[in-house]
Amino acid sequence: MLIQLHEVTYAYPSNKNKTIIQIKDWQLAQQQKHFLYGPSGSGKSTLLNIVSGVIKPTSGRVEVLNERLDKLKQHKLDKFRAQNIGYIFQKFNLIPYLNAFDNIHLAQYFAANTKKQQANADKTIMDLLEELQVNIDDCQRPVSQLSVGQQQRIGIARAFINQPKLLIADEPTSSLDQDARDSFITLLNKLCANHNCNLLFVSHDMSLQSYFDRTHALNQINLANKD
Ligand code: ADP
Ligand code: MG
Fold this sequence. Notes:
CATH architecture: 3-Layer(aba) Sandwich
Order of helices and strands: EEEHEEHEHHHHEHEEH
Strand order of the largest sheet: 6-7-8-3-9
Structural class: alpha/beta
Radius of gyration: 18 Å
Bound molecules: adenosine-5'-diphosphate, magnesium ion
């Protein structure tokens, strides 16, 4: 299984009385492109943070790629995440004053634990940027000087640098017009296929579901705040 949740609940420590996530059972198979949708505020980002091990559930079992994340100690969790999970954020979260190469290098640095991986880093980054058709001249400029389209490609390259088995994309298309959105999702799907990576794509926009193999409605999975 790619992801298995059982009896998972979550409340933010600052608001312990408000349960945000309450999921009885949720399973996602490997080798499929998954689409999760739900309205704003329904707990999508919170759930993604649980699945990627950024936050631990208040209770319940979280299994990702056959690893029990709720049981892992913090340093092992950090390592698991760095080595297995790629993340694309809504606003890409690139460091604006660094160029494309250095943005990706930083992500690579935190996960690589062998000298060989470190030694090959430069070539791996250049190969990825080439695969994503980022112009070599643009790689030398601070990313804040690049177009949104270029920044997206760099965000995708960064997410793939550690050869993740699971790619999580948290509403990466919400600020794009339809053409840019179509090409972004098509590119992402192509990269996932090339790199044999599972995809969990999240949006409030249900019309995107045709791009994916399986659709999950958070409102049907998450029982929090329901009578
Ligand atoms: P979505 O991604 O679907 O828009 P979120 O997971 O961001 O939803 O938010 C779900 C709920 O959790 C909201 O009610 C939000 O106010 C609350 N929430 C999100 N982040 C925090 C936080 N750091 N502390 C307390 N409450 C939060
Ligand atoms: Mg969100």
